[in-house]
Amino acid sequence: DTAVSQTPKYLVTQMGNDKSIKCEQNLGHDTMYWYKQDSKKFLKIMFSYNNKELIINETVPNRFSPKSPDKAHLNLHINSLELGDSAVYFCASSTGGTMNTEAFFGQGTRLTVV
Amino acid sequence: SQQGEEDPQALSIQEGENATMNCSYKTSINNLQWYRQNSGRGLVHLILIRSNEREKHSGRLRVTLDTSKKSSSLLITASRAADTASYFCATGSAGYSSASKIIFGSGTRLSIRP
Lengths: 114, 114
Prior knowledge:
Chain A is mostly beta strands.
């Protein structure tokens, strides 16, 4: 069983389109994240949700809208895709506690905007 | 903004040698974690060291933490070809409403020569 699964694994789309990436975790964690990894391998946190509530939004354009229908799911919807959105997007989850915040990652979604 | 900076950015060593990677961070933390990322894959958690700990071991891994210098090091002993990957440090801190925030450094690309 995959602990954190995200779909699709690859996504190629044209500029201006709207797309979604789905993420599900079966670990019972309270906290879920979205990270963006650019071509230089920098990992930047985008969002953090705790029990379906948005906790962290790291100056991400409002074209990016996370949705958490329940604490096991955190989907990422992107409107009006731009070339600069091309990256690998990782979903992760953790217990959210202050002393044990090991994160479990999905395999990533490679988004290519053409 | 990035929290951690790994040093060096890239490291190439002979199989069997030890590899040492360093990480510096900026703000106060609850814990510091090290992750490995194989090419094209998600991140895998290696080890977590709490802010009140100074050293931790796990198999061939040894992690140190110096909170006064805001730095950590990861030592991999007796390196193997399978250790070839990128290694990231990440700092964990408690955020709003007990949600944690895990911020990653820029990573060290480790190559093990056979």
